[in-house]
Specification:
The complex is a heterodimer.
Chain A lengths: L2 E12 L2 E12 L3 E5 L6 H9 L6 E6 L2 E2 L4 H5 L2 E5 L10 H11 L6 H10 L15 H13 L5 E5 L7 H18 L2 E5 L3 H7 L2 E6 L2 E6 L1 H7 L5 H14 L14
Parallel strand pairs in A: 3-8, 3-9, 6-7, 7-8
Antiparallel strand pairs in A: 1-2, 1-4, 4-5, 9-10
Chain B lengths: L14 H21 L9 H17 L4 H37 L3 H5 L5 H31 L10 H26 L6 H12 L14 H6 L1 H13 L6 H31 L8
Classes of the chains: A alpha/beta, B mainly alpha.
């Protein structure tokens, strides 16, 4: 299988805190991977480095064999990104907003991709609505449609179902799963909903204090930590994080891998 | 044989794709302008208010002095109309970028393949449309209210206008750089910087009229030479190409410096993760 994402030795330090401390992530074509961890574990910073919005202090990112550093524009052609916290430009209608992003991704006539995307997530009726008229769930769905207009090889989602009701969250999940199956899109997703992760992803990476402390299938990881499910692992790591609030060192995290 | 590109798939890299992106950005800002009537003030009301104010001032100054009044009207109205080229080009690009921060659209854009130059090009392209509307209204206002026809100055105004356009864009790149570095708190600079440049550029008077202490600053501004050339034209003299040359050279250097500053600030913005301020 092709590697669509290869991040090696990512390090990011903000003022006196190390947010990401030597993270390696590899995602193969079509693979669905979750990046998990307690608040402040470094998930969003890692994603933003992968996306080229933040430059790493050390390490490198390659998207579909294209190095992010120095080739940001080319690397970005193969990635789509959506986050539950990102709003839509308020003065634009959904169709206009999606057309703008379709054209930015170089598609002269994105109307077909827009229609397909809106249909996939069952929000065709929002086509003429303005950003300010949408609920947070609808904004998330439109954001995901925007992220997949150009059929990216890697779809990155940061908390895609945060604050969504179970119906909309289910629609997001099924739409994403269909998309990955139809287009062979790889998925890298962060979430605090462990049940969702188990439904959506075949592989999980746990981050704690900026480091990858576990990498494997959800059931394998739960077994390795002696917990019933991912939620148990999550709570265990959060507790460990709390006890070692002064950033755990490799001595007490490396043994987990 | 050349095959036609399927419009539903991405274009290959090149000028057509860059143009598509610039057009997309430009259209996005057109929607914002049309759907937020208060933003139209920048290109309708304020330019007309300026014409009214400076035209009336010229009329007052010229009361009882026919030739002096005409000259004052020329300096003031030609000055304010051409000043709006700097103002409109600067404010269009600066507020275009600020709009992305206000609507928290910055991260959405930063993770797309759009290049910085394509984005600025798109905003500047739309800014040109705003400039045509704003300056066009001023020309009409000047003619209707004060019988001042700037086209009577002839083509000599064109190179001066081109230099001023470049200066406006250069200042906007600097402003964007400062906002990237210092965040939303630096937004006021987008408008404030113009109130500093205007008096120092001798828009309405020779810089000899300025206090001696600030004259050295005026001497390094390209706008100073552009407006000095304009006053010569208003006085009926031939265009002073030496002044235009100095202004053009200065505008070019200023553009390079502003571009370098913007690129440096963008690198810093990425290195320090400032994008999270807008997410």
């Amino acid at each position: 299988m092709d590697t669509v994402l290869s991040a090696r030795g990512l390090v990011k330090e903000f003022k006196r805190a190390i947010a990401v401390d030597g993270v390696d992530i590899e995602v193969k074509a079509g693979e669905r991977v979750a990046l998990l961890g307690p608040n402040g574990a470094g998930k969003t910073t890692t994603l933003l480095m992968i996306l080229g919005a933040i430059s790493p202090d050390k390490g490198e990112v390659e998207i579909c064999g294209v190095a992010q550093q120095g080739n940001r524009s080319k690397a970005a052609e193969n990635v789509g990104f959506a986050a539950g916290y990102l709003p839509l430009a308020g003065e634009m209608k959904v169709r206009e907003y999606l057309t703008m992003f379709g054209e930015i991704y170089g598609i002269p006539d994105p109307s077909k991709a827009i229609a397909e995307g809106l249909e996939r997530f069952r929000i065709q009726h929002l086509s003429e609505a303005k950003g300010t008229q949408l609920s947070s769930g609808q904004r998330t769905l439109v954001g995901i449609v925007r992220a997949v207009l150009h059929k990216p090889r890697l779809l990155v989602l940061d908390e895609p179902t945060a604050s969504l009701d179970p119906d909309v969250a289910g629609r997001v999940r099924s739409g994403i799963l269909d998309l990955c199956a139809d287009n062979g899109t790889a998925l890298l997703v962060t979430s605090h909903d462990m049940l969702e992760v188990e439904r959506l992803c075949e592989r999980v990476l746990f981050l704690s204090a900026g480091r990858v402390v576990a990498d494997g299938a959800p059931s394998e990881i739960a077994e390795r930590f002696g917990r019933e499910d991912l939620e148990g692992v999550f709570l265990h790591l959060a507790d460990e994080n709390y006890q070692h609030s002064d950033f755990p060192t490799s001595q007490h995290t490396d043994h987990i891998l | 044989m050349k095959t036609q590109h399927d419009p539903t798939t991405p274009l290959p890299p090149g000028a057509a794709r860059s143009w598509l992106r610039m057009r997309a950005v430009s259209r996005r800002h057109a929607y914002v302008l049309v759907r937020s009537p208060h933003r139209l003030f920048d290109v309708t009301l304020w330019p007309l208010v300026d014409v009214l104010m400076f035209g009336s001032l010229a009329s007052f100054v010229g009361t009882g002095n026919a030739s002096g009044g005409k000259q004052a009207a020329g300096y003031l109205l030609a000055g304010i109309i051409l000043w709006h080229i700097v103002y409109q080009s600067q404010i269009a690009v600066s507020t275009g970028f600020l709009e992305e921060t206000w609507s928290r659209n910055l991260l959405n854009l930063m993770i797309t393949p759009i290049r910085e130059i394509e984005y600025v090009g798109g905003v500047a392209l739309f800014g040109m449309a705003k400039l045509v509307i704003g300056v066009g209204l001023m020309m009409i206002g000047g003619f209707v209210f004060f019988s001042f026809n700037i086209t009577s100055l002839g083509f000599a105004v064109v190179p001066i206008a081109a230099v001023l356009l470049l200066v406006g864009w250069a200042i906007s790149l600097f402003v964007i750089g400062v906002v990237l570095r210092y965040g939303p708190g630096a937004e006021a600079l987008a408008w404030g910087v113009m109130f500093v440049v205007l008096p120092l550029s001798g828009v309405f008077y020779p810089i000899d009229a300025l206090p001696a202490a600030v004259r050295p600053i005026a001497l390094v501004l390209p706008t100073t030479y552009a407006f000095a050339a304009l006053r010569g034209v208003v006085d009926g003299e031939a265009l002073n190409w030496a002044y235009v040359g100095i202004a053009a050279g200065g505008a070019f250097v200023l553009s390079l410096l502003s571009f370098w500053f913007l690129v440096s600030m963008l690198k810093l913005f990425r290195r320090r993760g400032y994008v999270t301020r807008y997410a």
